[in-house]
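Deliverable D5.2: sample structural annotation.
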Amino acid sequence: MKKIFLLVMAAAGLYSCQNDDVATTDSSFAMKASGADYNVCSPALLDTIVSGDLTAANGPHVWTKDRVWTIRGVLRVKGTTLKINPGTFIKADPTLTTGANGVLVITKDAQINAVGTPTEPIVFTSWKLLDCNAANAPAPGDFGGVVLLGNAPVNTGSVTNIIEGLGDQPNPEDFYFGGSTSGHDAGSLQYVRIEYGGRKLTPDVEINGLTFGGVGNAGLNVNTTKIHHIQVTYGTDDSYEWFGGTVNARNLVSFAPEDDNFDFDWGFAGSINYALALADRNSTHSLSGGNPDSNGIELDNDAAGSGNTPFTRPIINHLSVIGVSSADAGSYENGIHVRRNGRITLLNSTVAGYGVDALPNRFAINIENPSLAANSSFNNVGVNSYRTSPFTFPSSITNVTEATSTNFGMGQPFFNVGTLNFAGATNGAFVDGTAWIDNWTKFNNF
């Protein structure tokens, strides 16, 4: 696995080659090096093991980049703030081989202050990349994942919901989420990478790379949760999952998850601005009933498809969902799948590389039934699919421009034949030519 995935680098690098804030024409799509590319290892740096509970009584808690921080088991931050400085690396304890390991949980009465920079991102990653042994290959599940919990509304009617993937842990109240505080503040995650995360408790109950449970609304100019410039890669389940809450986020990257790039449930009512969902033909892909089940977006009101309110309805603006070539598209389900009474507002976005004629119920955008489509809205959405017609279900979806191509260009992920020109583009994650993924992201796994 310590190799460059050329297909994904070409597709992912589509917008990262510009250092300007001005739209330009470029067809090289050369990736730039990450500012934090595993030039540290332990025991070269002091390996500091943390476990149990971080509280005000045993604080303050500040993780610095002069050591590698190793999470043993499930680490709970309770009633205090965990601060992580720019350039800090965090991993799971490789000596603990059973149970949930390397899971960081910010409980509903705690906060995180993890603010990296474009040149010094904070990195949660596989211990195999930090062990001074180049022969060790990282794998999904090497790190447990990051979980943020809060008191914002969810549609279950309960304040004692237990976050998915941790139901087997003692003291279940540590993992409760949900309430009536829409403005709940979980702190800040900025310029952070979460790599090789996830934990499978059972086949359908897992920890994701980054999980939000009832987290409150965000804003750049107000004192509530701030989530931006996050990359989640090589996870065993979803890259991101939101269980209810109102938190907003922007500048998100999901790369090569086993399941979905973005998953929304339980009445999530926040917004996502500028996001990239990127598939990798070389990663493993989840199955449901023996059929491919990986989507760019998967969205449910809840597992039963109930009418519980608030309805799950994210507002997503400037999203790019990039799939794979036609030869590999059969390993995936839909670019966007809205089902079980969920709804979506999708603006200024594009979906490419999903939907195969020979396979039923695979679409660039698949909304479970026409009534859900009527409760969703689209504006300035472009679809490039391997299907002929329709590319979306139901075909009554409006404000979606459809095109098809059998040619997946490595450097042209939008199926255009000539040079890709950002100038004049009106949709997608990089519409203005700004290279917001430069420097701090990583699209290879060595």
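Annotation notes: Residues 210 and 299 are 16 Å apart (CA to CA). The chain is about 5% helix and 35% strand.
The annotation will be released with the project's public dataset once the embargo ends.
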